[in-house]
Amino acid sequence: xxxxxxxxxxxxxxxxxxxxxxxxxxxxxxxxxxxxxxxxxxxxxxxxxxxxxxxxxxxxxxxxxxxxxxxxxxxxxxxxxxxxxxxxxxxxxxxxxxxxxxxxxxxxxxxxxxxxxxxxxxxxxxxxxxxxxxxxxxxxxxxxxxxxxxxxxxxxxxxxxxxx
Length: 164
Known about the structure:
There is one protein chain. The protein is globular and about 45 Å long. The chain has a 4-stranded antiparallel β-sheet with strand order 1-2-3-4. The chain has one domain (3-163). Helix content is 63%, strand content 15%. Helix 1 (3-29) packs parallel to helix 3, helix 2 (63-87) packs antiparallel against helix 3 (93-116) and helix 3 runs antiparallel to helix 4. Strand 3 (119-127) and strand 4 (130-131) form a beta hairpin. It is α+β, with helices and mostly antiparallel strands.
């Protein structure tokens, strides 16, 4: 097996697996909307279902629209990620890790949409009355993957400017 596919196997599949395990634990141990403080005034585990995308975007649309829209977006995103993954050199570790995290996160949330028609979120950060929207392991992986890609692009830009 090529080195690159080990990234996808361990990081991508591992992310999707960890995402689904944590979501199942929350669903098993918590009632919907139940919240348990972990760090008072800063972080709680709070079981919510998000029918929309990030920050609840499209949550006010009908279930049929959301299902079709999010499945189409997921399939397109996963197809593009697979294309970029195959084009990435095997020695480009940052890009392989980033794409694998994005792939695993997309799969994790897509499984929820297929299974439930919405996404389980439970990581709830806040300061006082100011809350960041709740999220999950898949969302975290997507955020870290995009951040890694942005950092890598920034440093590649500097290398190109230095070479030119």
